[in-house]
Amino acid sequence: MYVCAACHAREEEPPSSRPPAPLARFECCDKALCSACLPPAITAKLELNLWFDLDLNAWLACPFRGCEGTLSIANATELAALYDSVGALGANFHVQIFTRACAIRTKLREVVEQLPWEAARTAYDLHHRLFRYRAMSHVFFDLHSDDELEVDFLSVLSSDGEIVRVPILTSLFNRESSTTRTCLVCAEELRDVSFPFPSGWKRLAGRDFQGDLHLFGEPFPRAEALPVCAGAHELDICKGCIARHVHAKLEERGSAAVNELRCPAPGCGHLYTPQELRAVTNHETYSRYERLCLINALQNEPDFRWCLRPGCRSGQMYDTTSGCCEPPALSGAAALGERAARALPDDVRDPNRITCDTCGFAMCFEHQAPWHRGMTCREYSDLLARGDGAAETESWMKRNTKKCPGKGCGVAVEKGGGCFHMRCGSCGAEFCWECLADWKGIWTRAGYNLKGHRKGCFFRSKDAPRPLFMRGDTMEEAVEMHEKRAGRDMRGGQG
């Protein structure tokens, strides 16, 4: 004989005149629920369970607390059959809620195969908080159809300081119809979220949801966040576009851009402060900005080295006090044991051999050059002292790099196969690769100025193509490639 675990109704004929209560039994925990308690118990678990196990068709959890069992129900038809088997009242309403949960899961699977446990749990807590603060409709009781569901991701800081990418159903936000504005850049019509509390998003986010929530709630910057810009023009560029603008600048110019991040509004040019950047960008972009600011502050330290691999703009501090500048490789070698470490080549065990944490490029700390493979620092220094031009690394540096002409820089820059307009990844200086002339004098507001090149430069000639149109590792290769292209164009025109 089974008893309903919720209301204690029995399956057999009770002493009163009420008919017996049919029960649904759960083999996973050997418990049962009556027809009145079954639908609400299953529905109560849906709001949490819908975020988990996206790869499973049968994902409904057992409604009993503490039981880790899963019901063998994969669709609304099977759930309706369960309810019919016990004569559950109001079953259609609960089946509709389950259908809605399945639609949300389908939408989530379109953008992500599986959610980590912490992201799934945070998604549930966040939507519950937004609903409680009246900023969002309930996931099961909104006015949107399943076809109108929209999913986006935001970054939230976890309790241990890690970034968690959390899905958010943006179509459920309660938007202010009176605040529709069009972004000047992306041309999207955006509206603020209806929020009844004066303390705004800080109160809602609290300590649990610090991160990018404000970007979804307030798509445009507030006047108090950008007072200088607000006094000069309308704040009609959304935070998303500002964040993308800042991110692009940091990607393009690295640490050289941190003091050049300006408002993208036409005619403004206001230099953003760190506080303003925090208010208008996402967490990922602002974290990169902070790291590049730190690199700028550290680059004058004696233990700081820039990565010398072309295209990598990273830099870091190296610990020279321990007699070893290579923590990743040497610590790994040490783990092999003393005998295995002695078996490594002398140049690999050299304490001046460092690698970039970002790209793994090997360099020499002492000589500030790519690592002289096959030679220890002492051997390499001896070669340089003798003036031996056969030193492989020195020869490579002379053939392939030039010192940046930027003030106080001098970092070795490699050209590669691109055009002859160069930008130093360290200091941001722009110059002509052929003559090292400052690019500001070559490309002015009036246009291209060939006299901006230094005397003797190939590009100073009136007949020379512009440096942006020439590509190749060397000038000879670039001229040859340019002539071949010109020949193909002529033949194409004749054909």
Automatic annotation (TrEMBL):
InterPro entries linked to this entry: E3_UB_ligase_RBR, IBR_dom, TRIAD_supradom, Znf_RING/FYVE/PHD
Enzyme class, spelled out: transferase
Catalysed conversion reaction: [E2 ubiquitin-conjugating enzyme]-S-ubiquitinyl-L-cysteine + [acceptor protein]-L-lysine = [E2 ubiquitin-conjugating enzyme]-L-cysteine + [acceptor protein]-N(6)-ubiquitinyl-L-lysine
This enzyme's EC code(s): 2.3.2.31
Pfam families with a match to the protein in the record: IBR
Keywords: Metal-binding, Repeat, Transferase, Ubl conjugation pathway, Zinc, Zinc-finger
Entry's Gene Ontology BP terms: protein ubiquitination
Gene Ontology terms for molecular function: ubiquitin protein ligase activity; zinc ion binding
Name of the protein described by the UniProt record: RBR-type E3 ubiquitin transferase
Organism of origin: Cephalotrichum gorgonifer
